[in-house]
Prior knowledge:
Blueprint: H1 12-17, H2 55-65, E1 78-87, E2 107-115, E3 130-138, E4 141-148, H3 161-168, H4 184-192, H5 197-204, E5 218-219, E6 224-227, E7 233-242, H6 251-260, H7 264-274, E8 280-289, E9 315-324, H8 329-334, E10 347-349, H9 353-370, H10 449-457, H11 460-475, H12 480-493, H13 495-504, E11 539-543, H14 550-562, E12 566-571, E13 575-578, E14 584-587, E15 589-590, E16 601-604, H15 608-615, H16 618-629, E17 633-637, H17 640-646, E18 660-662, E19 665-668, H18 674-686
Parallel strand pairs: 11-12, 11-16, 12-15, 16-17, 17-19
Antiparallel strand pairs: 1-2, 1-9, 2-3, 3-4, 5-7, 6-7, 6-10, 7-8, 8-9, 13-14, 18-19
Helix pairs in contact: 3-4, 4-12, 5-10, 11-13, 12-13, 14-18
The structure holds CIS-heme D hydroxychlorin gamma-spirolactone 17R, 18S.
Amino acid sequence: MxxxxxxxxxxxxxxxxxxxxxxxxxxxxxxxVVVDNTDNSLKVGNRGPSLREDFHFQEKLSHFDxxxxxxxxxxxxxxxxxxYFQVYEPLTEYSKAEFLQNPSIQTPVFAxxxxxxxxxxxxxxxxxxxxxxxxxxxxxxxxxxVGNNIPVFFIQDAIKFPDIVHSIKPEPDNEIPQASTAHPxxxxxxxxxxxxxxxxxxxxxxxxxxxxxxxxxxxxxxTYRLVNAEGKSRFVKFHWxxxxxxxxxxxxxxxxxxxxxxxFQRRDLWExxxxxxxxxxxxxxxxxxxxxxxxxxxxxxxxTKLIPEELVPVRAIGKMVLNRNPDNFFxxxxxxxxxxxxxxxxxxxxxxxxxxxxxxxxHDTQLHRLGSPNFAHLPINRPICPxxxxxxxxxxxxxxxTSRVNYxxxxxxxxxxxxxxxxxxxxxxxxxxxHKIRERSQSFGEHFSQATLFWNSLSAVEKKHLVEAxxxxxxxxxxxxxxxxxxxxxxxxxxxxxKQVAMGIGVAAPAQPITQNHGQSSPALSQNAFAVKTAKGRxxxxxxxxxxxxxxxxxxxxxxAEAGAEGLIVSTFLGTIKSATGETLKVDQTFLTSAxxxxxxxxxxxxxxxxxxxxxxxxxxxxINEAFRHCKAIAATGEGVELLKxxxxxxxxxxxxxxxxxQGVISAKTPSxxxxxxxxxxxxxxxxRFWNRTIQQKVPA
Length: 701
Ligand code: HDE
């Protein structure tokens, strides 16, 4: 057996390398004894009873019996990636954190994105908040920014966390429903907790249906502190902005995806990185001077509030690039232990009671999940800088300490490990005084103004989606009183909203507003503010059968590839198809293995025989109807236009002659230039969706 080299603590990647198993090594037991047969247990004769002395069998089975650790109570389902963070300019004025000083340094990171409510095996695309957790392996220790893709939270005090989570999770008697807030106990709780109002507006919005992890914002949520070398502290809010823009699925699509491809977002993250389309996010900060702490009409320690960007602009300070997939899901993504309490000098906490509770809960959770106080020794959790202390024992200690002392102070060990002579982490010496009380500050008492601000800031289509989401969510609540209470709650936000929702859920519309809508908005709260128009990373289905015009397929594929997107041929059977001119084309997916919901757009190439076949295929027609209904870009050339005519799509003009682009449906029966069609299609893909397809609801899908 080769002995592994001692841990190299200078670089995270090297640290991980030493734990990798070489696939070419011969099979042994965990004790290193060579195994030459792992398919048959040890028996008396080949039909006889098994023998207890079969140590290989025992080790293999007992290891298997323990292969699962408790899944996270929340955020159980997630996917992670390695990468780096690089600051744009020294942030010396605000923070002494070393990783924020030098723009030439790439700090290794591991990011984990997750859903909240579902179990480890649930679908990726469900309506849910997404976790956005990043571990920075800095030279001064690990810093964890454990955030969400929504800038506010349900509750104000961490002591309510078990209650909100119990209400979101499947109901305790029958464990229904999985990964969904659309059930009575959740809305019962929400209807009784007014502070959740702002968050549920975000929950019902398109934010909870991200197209991919690389197309959603991230937020630190709480107010933190940045502290500079002179000890000056300022309050800060953290923001992550995806460079691909913020884009969402539509609800029907998200629901279907949960069955067609439950790994949709996990797969997208993995494939994007494998293809070199690295997800990139800018880190931004909002800085609030200490003396401005009380200048807002809300409390900056209240996590149900955000600081509108119009009041305090977000300054981009650096970029995170995710460029390496994990080598092993369990060792890395499952065992990564995030803790908001992991900070480095220059970053500190505020007194937000939600954050304060998290500073306890995550460490406690890791002790339970990972089962040992030595969880920081795991490769994914190890700092890249050395760490020494007297906490030596406990399960799974990975190092063999050789000193005879494990206490401080000591003389026998030369006083080592000794408290540092240069300054270590110094908690910001905030002055505090008060009585011990179980109370909430009055400054936390207003719950509706920012919910109204959010509603006012949405585009018409975002509002429509939100109302439909409320129909669905509250439509699953059979208790009339809960539905009435929720309409009453929404009437605190906006009477128009309350009336619309009331209509869909069998509740009388409120006659009067409870609070007059203040009429203010914050454009940055709409997804439109971050809707970057790029086709990069998008996937397109090319519908084709035998006899397709290869030239058209090639032109579209090439244009997509040049834009960083991908065109995949979808046909009836896997294998290859022959084009009208005799070329062999590889089929990537079939109508059975794929669906329009797995793509950002659909293209139908011409070819008399191909279109005759597809016209007889209900799945091909459904593909187009569904893509149309979900407002996706659709293109057809040559006889392909005939397939669009055979479908139920309506309200758009299909061209008989030259190039026609009507609401993202591009058709060219006799294309004068294939490249012009391809360019229009790529541009349409980059739009993400065509929300102005007002009558798409009439199309069956
Ligand atoms: Fe968490 N949260 N949380 N949370 N949270 C966990 O930690 C908790 C909160 C967030 O990818 C748990 O390892 C409390 C806000 C993310 O591994 C647990 C409170 C925000 C992740 C826990 C909150 C988050 C978690 C479950 C109320 C956004 C996944 C397993 C004060 C700022 C991290 C675990 C990953 C996970 C506790 C509220 C984000 C139980 C007590 C607010 C992204 O410790």
